[in-house]
Amino acid sequence: MADPIRWARYRWQRLIATEGRECSSNNSSSKCYQSSKTTGKHRIVIPCLGHFKEEYEKVSKLYMNNKIRTTRYTLLNFLPRNLFEQFHRVANLYFLFLVVLNWVPLVEAFQKEITMLPLVGVLTIIAVKDGLEDYSRYKMDKQINNLVTKVYCRKEKKYIDECWKNVNVGDFVRLSRNEIIPADMVLLYSSDPDGICYIETAGLDGETNLKQRQVVRGYSEQVSEIDPEEFSSRIECESPNNDLSRFRGFVEHSNMDRVGLSKENLLLRGCTVRNTEAVVGIVVYAGHETKAMLNNSGPHYKRSKLERKVNTDILWCVLLLLLMCLTGAVGHGIWISRYSEIPFFNIPRPDGKSSPPALAGFYMFWTMIILLQVLIPVSLYVSIEIVKLGQIYLIQNDIDFYHEKTDSTIQCRALNIAEDLGQIQYIFSDKTGTLTENKMVFRRCSIAGQEYCHEENAKRLESYQEIDSEDEDSAGCQCGSSTPTSKCQRHNCRAVCEPLNRKSLNQFSGSYSAFKKQDEASDTCHSGDMAFSSPIETDIVPDTQLLEKFSQISFHSYQQSEEASSKLSLETMYITDFFLALAICNTVVVSGPNQPRQKMRLSSLSKMPIKSLEEIRQMFQRFSVWRLSSSPLPSVKESSSESPSSSVRKLSIFRMKLASPTLDGAAQRVSEPHNTDSPENSQVPGELHVVSVAAGEPNHAVSSIELSPIPKLCYEAESPDEAALVHAARAYKCVLQSRTPDQVTVDFAGLGSLTFQLLHIVPFDSLRKRMSVVVRHPVSNKVVVYTKGADSVMMDLLRTASEVHSNNSEIEEKIKERTQQHLDDYARRGLRTLCIAKKVMSDAEYTEWLNHRFLAETSIDNREDLLLESAMRLETKLTLLGATGIEDRLQEGVPDTIQALRQAGIKIWMLTGDKRETAVNIAYACKLLEPEDRIFTLKSQSRDACALVMSKILEGIQKNASVKNKPSEKLGNVSASPSTQARGFNAGLVIDGRTLEHVLHDSLQNIFLELTEKCRAVVCCQATPLQKSVLVKLVRSKLKAMTLAVGDGANDVSMIQVADTGVGISGQEGMQAVMASDFAISQFRHLRKLLLVHGHWCYTRLTNMVLYYFYKNVTYVNLLFWYQFFCGFSGTSMTDYWILILFNLLFTSVPPIIYGVLDKDVSAEILMELPQLYTMSQKSVAYLPSTFWITLLDAFYQSLICFFVPYFTYCGSDIDIISFGNPINTAALFIMLFHLLIECKSVTYIHTVVIVGSILFYFVFTLAVGATCKTHNPRSDFYWIMEKHMTDPVFYLVCLLTTCIALLPRKNET
Length: 1310
Hints:
Strand content: 5-15%
Family: Belongs to the cation transport ATPase (P-type) (TC 3.A.3) family. Type IV subfamily.
Helix content: 40-55%
Number of helices: 46
Cofactor: Mg(2+)
Enzyme class: translocase
Shape: elongated
Strand order of the largest sheet: 14-33-32-31-15-27-30-29-28
Number of strands: 33
Binding site for ATP: 430-432, 722, 764, 788, 832, 912-914, 1028, 1051-1052
């Protein structure tokens, strides 16, 4: 065959078929891949058709259908399962034990129904909450399961409407545009002539940019839609798993030919078909076996640090309860033993004998447990949940977290760890997209060892930065209005400077607004709808020197450069291949303006409605550009002599005013060089050329290139780096016009339209840190590999001097040396660097590599290793073309935020995949590192060397710290925090990914952590996602520190999930980090208020509420305990059982909840101005062990006052027990509520209403019980008690005196 590529593929298929037949004939099970042997390990998919009926029924029984159920309960199992789950809580089991214990007659303390009331109330509330949540999931499941899709019916021989829940593995499903994919299925047909299906994966990872999926190889060439009846193949693939980035398997045809399957052939459930009229696929995973459902593990649960501490203190309360009950049991036994005869109140047993004192004391132990059960706060857990919901509500409704540009606010995805925000000690932050904007702007490049600084483009970016800063202040100034505001006028005048006066500016703004309104209706390609397409990223001003060289490239000169070896011809080849690599070495999806989010085909370019030059001329007339100067317009020659700086300033400002994509595209076409002799440009007046030459392009460059206006194309990239490089190539007229699975078309100035045959794409991965495309070059007809990647790996892949022709070896070595210098300079400037390289392969080399690649693609076991090996085999002996420097600007407010967080005692680590120089530069820019800091770089090739270097660094830090810490030894403890050091010496540590591998070894972990504790900041560069998560886990487990991880991309997910608190930033890299996080914010600066204000508030409020719960429960239980000393430890209560049980459940439960939600110990303004206050919550000052015991002592004191003041008041009187207990009960209510009022740092009307309401509710309830207890309570002791006391002045005096004495120490302390 003429084409060696087709010949190689043909030979490979024949080889596979022959081996398959030999295996089947020889029954060589050891060498032949037998699917029957691996049924449990792999999945066999048989089509649901007549000729596969028996085999289908046998295999399909093992697979799940497509019906999903995310509910936890059914109508039958709701009650038993919910109770079973609730009784997993120790507190509920404890109260269940008390209920059962109270049914034992010998130890009964209350009425049986009364004891059940608290437990039943708590269980009912939680059951209702769980039931409502589950019912909402049930309705969602029902809605999803009843969605309709087209499924092939073998009886009717056509596609029929079928519910999702009835779809099974092996069914053929037909989908149309904008339909959601019901199950994971292999793509067998697409209406796209190139066999492409565009999907949107927002339902899985939040990314709205389109992804391409490809029809299985061998089916894409079919003209008509696939007929399921003629499908005679079977599919074997891996078992269901949750890896979204991997799919392994193959299609085996009836002739034993096999075709490999990958994730590019798989349509995942939950994705949406876009820009494709019809697709057909066969279901391989259904229902809960789909990758989407396997990844849906439900809400992740994290236990907060405070919750763990509360559980510990509850155990202390249990021990206190046991001690009090043991005291009561011993006291009761001693009391009984003092009577020589059987006392009258001791009821004998049925045999007439009474229980001995020891046995009576044993029974009394359990009676006392029932009586004093209130000591364990049964309602505390419910109250904590309610308080946390209230705190989350306040956080989500904070207007300061709203980001207008993205129209997003904070999301609180974890509802139970809000208080952990107030105890963070370490923050692990990604760099790109977290500290920076993730708007990649092309800044510099180096080609063939020659650097091109793009100074004009740098000035454009400076002007953008000025305008962005002013736009933030003006809150989106609407210059599109008919009358611009004065702020807009000042802003524009400063940007345009001297050439523009105020009057002409008003005309410019007014004309622009009118044109914008008119044009927005007809143009649909809005850059704002797509990621990585803001004007600052797309409007690139070419470098004049490079543009001049670029203009000299022609088809003839490029052909000569392929053959010649002169310096000029080599430079031509390098420049051409460099920009071709930028344009095609990516996975960018090309779409047109009038067909948004759709593939742009080369044949349709001529039919696109592009504005004519006459319309552009009219537009400029409407803008009144020629009136900006009073002098006549100069000629092209005169304009070309204008200084580049002023010319570019005019052009850059002019471009920025064209906010709409239509105007932006028009201005971009105008600013490109035009041939003045061409027929199209003959109609354009002179003033149009003034603007184009003002871009700093030389006159001869304008006249030497004959170009048509660049069509408006929209690029959808998976990463901002790809978008930046494609837009950079486009600025130099190397325009990516279309992309199909088999070819890429580039419109290259001087070479015309070039269509590359796309042979393979080797995607980027974090291990290789590069990507490659294999194409057949249309000019040379050779197989060319274009590779781009990190310089840390690319430089090692370049061919050596011995592998280069003798006449070019010296040149390539110089290029490599100069490029490395440029890369280091770019990194010092804080730019992201990429190396661009290429490799030319012979047909024989490519055929050999293709055989290995096919073997890897058709494997199921060890597929990733084989694919990696084939990629490594391809990416060797590369020729370095050049390098790029891309700027990623810091987000607004990042330096101030980092400075505030460090003042708050939080250590910040920056974990990034960028190279060291870039990471350090960004660290200085965001004030993570200060100029006076001493930076230690940890870089070593072996573990022993790494240990030695760390020891030396540690010794140096300790020596400097010991010398300079002496004057500051007298500082107080408040200033000592995890991140504070001696003022005279601050250290920073920088470590790279290779050294991290040694550092994370078990033998070096301790010394590494000791070193990091001595450092002010740590910067880890070139770190992999796995290393990030291991570092977080190491600090969390070894140092027992509270950690927070913040990131914005999929590579930060593992780090976010490992940390105590994970924060995702909803940036431009999808929503995977957000979906895995506990809290999601839109800007890094929001972290400042989230931690310093809301974190402090949440922790302080909740700890104070928890301590108050312990206080009030211990206080009330002690009242019962003190009474036992006067009733022979008989387990008698001096108050009504209803009031006793409901006292903590109703009368005193709401005020602490309001206190926990609304209290503010310090205002937000002060917390933001004084970050040092954060250390109070960080060090758990409000909830130290000593604080807990002091609270219990306070409770003991107040209970003594509350009991003995009424006791001595009524001592010697004939008052009955219940009448004695009523003032004690009432005084206890006043003491507890006023105690809470004293504790409140900010009292609002809500606090007042709740406290007054609780008091009124208590009196109403006691009056009602006293009036009606005869009818519902067999014990009528409480009858009319409160009514009598309401008329007794002594009662009021006792309550007032008791309350004042009990709260006197608290008042003095306040």
